[in-house]
Amino acid sequence: MSASNSFFSLRGQIIYWLAAVLLILTIFPFIWMVSTSFKPLKEIFVFPPHLMPQNGTLENFARLFEQTRFMTYFKNSVFVSTTAVFLTMIIASMGAYSLTRFKFYGREKIASLILFTYMFAPIMIVIPFYVLIRKIGLANTHMALILAYTAFCLPFSIWLLRSFFQSIPISLEEAALIDGAGRIRAVVYIILPLALPGIIATGIFTFILAWNDYIFVRILITSDELKTLPVGIADLYNATVIDWGMIMAGSMLITVPVLIFFVFIQRYLIAGWGAGGLKG
Amino acid sequence: MRISPQKAGIALISPAIFLICSLLVYPVLYGVWLSFFKKHSFFPAQKFVGLQNYWYLFTDQEFWMSVWYGTVYSVSTIVLQIVVGVIAALIVNESFKGRNFVRGAILFPYVIPTVVAIILWKWLLNNQFGLVNYALMFLGVVDDPISWMGKDHIMASLILISVWEFFPFVVLSVLARMQSIPPVLYEAARVDGAGAVSRFFHVTLPQLRNVLFVVILLRSIWMFTKFDTVWLLTQGGGAEKYIRTLPVYAYKRTFMYYQAGLGATLAVIMFCILIVATAVYFKLFRREEEL
């Protein structure tokens, strides 16, 4: 469109001000959370509030690690999320490869069924899902969570990867096959590297969904030692006296892995977004 | 040994199909079946009751309240998300220093865990120590702190938090499309003497039509079935009654009153409402040449 907006033109001024408002609205709450998590108890409730801690302290973090099972929740979250990510990436890649490279009866019907299930929201399946999981004896296990996340992320992941695989010319593979490479070698050396951004994008989406999920854990997990972070933190909030400092410290620690993930792989994330986005 | 492409294709897709059918499709069908039964959430005993669950809900005032709250919640959050999202996309589509940073920062509310978003806002909106009340009083907008989590304001707070949490999705989808609008269209409009506002309504908006069609559809489905944001705001206590949308009501019936049959009925009703609404939406707004 127009050339770069100078800060000194009227139009430029307006844009900078609007951008500043937008920035404050989106990240100020996070800054406030970080600031609160480093404040000693007395400062948290001081009125008028200070933007930055006057006497920074780590006591909120110390209480979080000593008085709660934060580390257990953290380990559970890491285990469940990473397992779901790997399962989804493998199963979705296989499925998308099949949908784009092999012709078989009902292929297009399967593709539409998958797209249709993308519309399912957790609340619509979680009640029968729960009854079912209890029946097959998987209630209160991490396996139940991993299955739930994998199943939930598959439709989107297959759909995304399908468009990635479609954009890779079949002739590339055929050339490798003619050169005497087996199908598996052709896939490993030619297709996977080219589809890597898509595969990584599905991994990120699954990770974020699994890491952030509340409802499945709330419903499927009853033992405290099996809970993941979101439910663990939400339960801290249910205590009679709300320890804001400790809750903010915990909230910050759950957010950091997502942010790190996010900053490093933002370009893949945007690739995925264009193709339909993450649900929620 | 050679495997036929037919068999190889089916073998590769079958794990995905198995998981999707057994964990997504089957539960939905099982939910429909459950909706004809009176069933306790924990005990195996169940009794066929025909359409009694549906009839019960039809005459249940709480159900109609939840339909009402659900509608208020989804319609207002969707409208606000789209408006805020498009405005934000217009801003970050301009070129200015630090644009990439602002673009990244905008996504922040969307990628943080919902539980964190809720806790953050409950702290900001806390009636005694919250920053929002402090700022409003400091600026002289109000004299007494507002009870954001009280029954009069909780729906407004919920809508505010939800719009904050989900507008980035709109920004990203819309921004991607905005960047692909040919600049020549704007130049032509400018030559014709169109001002900025007129350019937005006559050039930008028609170009965004298709992407907005999809974004509104997805966001409507997701807002209408949103559970965690709504539930976590009160976790079943306080003024929960005043934001009890359909998903929350289904959860309460199943996991607090242990009426799994009734909970499943509510899920089926939500599903039907969505299918009907989607069909109407397509009929009204989808034109042949699109998508």
Describe this structure in words.
The complex is a heterodimer of chains A (280) and B (291). Chain A has helices at residues 10-37, 41-44, 59-67, 70-101, 107-117, 122-135, 142-166, 170-178, 183-212, 215-220, 229-237, 244-264, 266-274. Chain A is mostly helical and 280 residues long. Chain A has two domains: 10-57, no CATH class; 67-274, MetI-like fold. In chain A, helix 9 (183-212) crosses helix 13. Chain A is globular and about 75 Å long. The model of chain A is unreliable at 274-278 (pLDDT under 50). With 291 residues, chain B is mainly alpha-helical. Chain B is 71% helix and 2% strand. Chain B is built from 13 helices and two strands. In chain B, a hairpin with a 6-residue loop joins strand 1 (37-39) and strand 2 (46-48). In chain B, helix 6 crosses helix 11 and helix 8 crosses helix 10. The longest helix of chain B is centred in the first third of the chain and has 33 residues, at 61-93. Chain B is globular and about 70 Å long. In chain B, 38% of the residues are buried. At the A-B interface, helix 1, helix 4, helix 5, helix 6 and helix 7 of A face helix 1, helix 3, helix 4, helix 5 and helix 6 of B.
